[in-house]
Amino acid sequence: MPTDSLRQLEKLMVDLHRQFVQGLRESPEADRLRDEMEPLELQLGEDERRLFGELSEDLYEIEGERHVVPAPNGVDLESAVMAAFNAGSHRRVLELLRADTSPVSRDRRSYVQGRCWEQMGFPLTASLFFANAYLHSPRAVYQATELTALAQAGELEDLCRRVDAIEAQPDSSPIVLQQAAVVLFQMTRTRPKLERPALYRRVIGLAERGDGDPAPLGNQRVATLIAAGFSYGNLDDHVQARRLLDQAVATGEYPEAYAARGVARLREDRAGALADFRRAVELRSQSVLPYFHLAHDALQRGGFSQLLGLCQEARSVAPPGHWRGRMYEWEAIARAELNEPRVRVEALFSLAFSEAPLDPAIRENADRYASRQVTAKPWTVPPEEPPGFESLDGVSAQDPIAA
Length: 403
Description:
By secondary structure, the protein is mainly α. It has a domain at about 285-370: Serine Threonine Protein Phosphatase 5, Tetratricopeptide repeat. Helices cover about 70% and strands about 0% of the residues. It has 20 helices and no strands. Helix 7 packs antiparallel against helix 8 (about 140-150), helix 15 (about 270-280) crosses helix 16 and helix 16 runs antiparallel to helix 17. The longest helix is centred in the N-terminal third of the chain and has 18 residues, at about 5-20. The protein is globular.
């Protein structure tokens, strides 16, 4: 992934590119950006410097200054590009596209360039190529992927400007409207709390407009219903939140729909929430929440064999830090209660501590086990706090398909 210096340079280069597009190549702002870039470029290694040069070269193409390099002899470029893309050799794809003189449409070319830069860790650059693809052919997939790239890059202001334009279009594609709802919801939790209610209402409005014909793919509709349902939850309208999450479950056997409804039910219908979480786990949910709540329930009941299995499954989806640390800790407890070798239990406590060194429960349980002070009810277990409606790990629309 790009280093901090390379990420800073990407942002400056994109801003400089925007100056060029506006015909301000020699403006004071362009000069300032060049001055900021110079010391950062000196911090790059040799390969990073080449990569940054390639990024700059590709951006020139958007400005209409494409420089086509000679094509490799005896190479069918379209076949070579497809093979490299399918193999995940994204830098090779970009290299071939710079030499590509075959009749590939400009929109497809820009879209593929965007996908490559996105996969290489440059979502901001990718967003420019997706926008350029849309300029040449207004396909919903190009607009939707631009929104996703802007969200990945953390560019909330640019994202909101794009959403403004989409909302102003009377014939916006349902796919684009739903993707806008999902990515705007994902970005909302990064904003100050006073700004969030207005953003949640925008998410709901986009979702309602997008829930029409032609119906988007089921997974995208589920992600949108969850985003809108959680937005209602954050606005304390739990009736509407539950209505939309019930719709998400009814859309099909999507694990995150069950996980999201479980979150909504946890405060008032714990048995129903646990049933939803069990179904989410059966469907291989990519959210850690259903595994966590089922594991907490198993730990409280003394179901240590079940706890062991849940912790092992959860580690494949748990993000680093608190969540993964808790799963290592509870697996250690399960193995201790099942009388497994001390060396294995202690190794798991060490892994838990390395993930969450400031967590008091992990420290207390590890110390108690190490000092052999295990009694009938020895373990410190934090209370089960029902999660809020701010996020659900694993909830996102998949690659949108053009309507």
